[in-house]
Amino acid sequence: MLAKRIIPCLDVRNGQTVKGINFVNIREVGDPVEMGATYAEQGADELVFLDITASHEGRKTFVDLVKRIALHLNIPFTVGGGIGDLSDIEALLAAGADKVSLNSAAIRKPELIGQMARNFGSQFVVVAIDARNENDKWTCYINGGRIATEKELFTWAREAENRGAGEILFTSMNHDGTKNGFACNALARLSDSLSIPVIASGGAGNMEHFADVFTLGKADAGLAASIFHFNEIAIPELKKYLSLKNIPVRL
Prior knowledge:
Blueprint lengths: L4 E9 L2 E6 L2 E7 L1 H11 L4 E5 L2 H4 L5 H8 L6 E4 L5 H10 L3 E4 L1 H5 L2 H10 L4 E10 L2 E6 L4 E6 H11 L3 E6 L11 H10 L4 E4 L5 H9 L5 E4 L1 H4 L5 H10 L7
Parallel strand pairs: 1-4, 1-12, 4-5, 5-6, 6-7, 7-10, 10-11, 11-12
Antiparallel strand pairs: 1-2, 2-3, 7-8, 8-9
Helix pairs in contact: 1-3
């Protein structure tokens, strides 16, 4: 079995790492360059950088900031936010990104997934999906969770895979920032319906939640922000805990 991945996420707004609850009540938590370097030193398997207001503000991701973060990393680095076409993707890869995450752009222009996969390879393509469970239906949102779409989580994830996505990053908007655990039932269904890795996001509050997401939720990676940002869980201790639970991780 492949090792499960632990991934800190830097949600960035105006050049600062921020965190909210259910995609609102956002506050600043630190410098993304320093935080990224610290997570790499602590043994994170990957780092995700999301420019959370780029799509909403109709601008490009801060490429210079991506460059500065990448200089301090020795782990895979995924970048998303404000992507509109292949030239944006080329700029991010040139700045040091190892993978590029599409969310709003993928829903607005699904053919971009295939274009990216053909030009750079599926392994570079992460399709991020922000979805909210409303009346037992998972509705996909764009623009940082501001705009509901007609897309449904499971149907859209399968379409994204068929178009060339190499991974799906699913954030449950219901669980985001609550620290009450991941959306394990939805994640298990998602993992069962896809042949590509699923990254779980939204709801991590303790080490048991990570054990649950890898067993009950069948996720390939667990992504979290606030519990790492506020030193509630240290990555080395989390990996030791998971290893004792016979969950394969890179120690």
